[in-house]
Each structure stands twice: as C-alpha cells, then as structure tokens.
Amino acid sequence: MxxxxxxxxxxxxxxxxxxxxxxxxxxxxxxxxxxxxxxxVSSHQVAEQSETMQAxxxxxxxxxxxxxxxxxxxxxxxxxxxxxxxxxxxxKAAHGIHIQANLFNHDKFVDQYSTYLTGAIQPGKSQYFKIxxxxxxxxxxxxxxxxxxxxxxx
Length: 154
Description:
Structural class: alpha+beta
Order of helices and strands: HHEEEEEEEE
CATH class of the largest domain: Mainly Beta
Number of strands: 8
Helix content: 25-40%
Largest sheet: 3 strands, antiparallel
Strand content: 35-45%
Strand order of the largest sheet: 1-2-7
Shape: rod-shaped
CATH architecture of the largest domain: Sandwich
C-alpha cells in the first residue's frame, strides 16, 4: 500500500470555503435574476389592473347601467331611511356600487347620506338597498324631497 502525501488541512479548509463561496454567489445571482423578472411581471400586471379598474369605474357608464327604482323614504322608531332597488342593465357584473341621497328643502340642498352595496349585481339582476339618514338621536335635516344617484363602483 502506498499512501499519498498527507493534505495540508489549511488548504483543504480553504478549498471547502472557496467552493461554498462560489456556490453562494451562484445562488445569489439566480435569486437576483428571479426577483428582477418577478418585479417586471408584477408591475405590468398592476398597470393592466389599474387601467381595467379606471375603465370600469366610469361614473357615466355606471349611471347608465345601474338603475334605481322603487325608492321611498321610510320612518320607523324615529329613524329615517331611504330604501329601493338597484338593477344592473349593463353587460358586466357591478361590484361595490356607491349610492348617494341628497336631501333638499324647497329645492335647497340641506343634507347628504350614502351607502355601498356589498357583493356583485349580475347583469339583469337587482339588489335592494337602504340608506340610513341620521340616527334616532340625530335625525336628518328637515327636507321635503331627495335625489338618488349612483356615484361609482367597479
């Protein structure tokens, strides 16, 4: 049996450390490239979503697509509310519909209340809504009429 020359332990350790260093550099470069690609894809998707939401949030389009009907003011136990139905006449589902009630006294604006509809209103479908006006201890301003309008949604 012939034995080879014994290795220098310091050189052996330096070789292991060197290989570990190179392995770490390789993983770091790969991770950096993956993060860069991920950011570019993510920012592109965010830009597309923003453009889509801006198009969907068009107030004029929503006012045409969402019709308010059967609205009436009800008073019960000292609380005033305006109830009615919102119907989607559009071609896409409508989400987060914001309905506002403006109160008037002799054609002069006196108060304002609003509500958001939860869930989606599918095309051709309706959803009831209720706009609470004030509360038992603080009723709405004296008024003789109101006007409802759809302010937004997506």
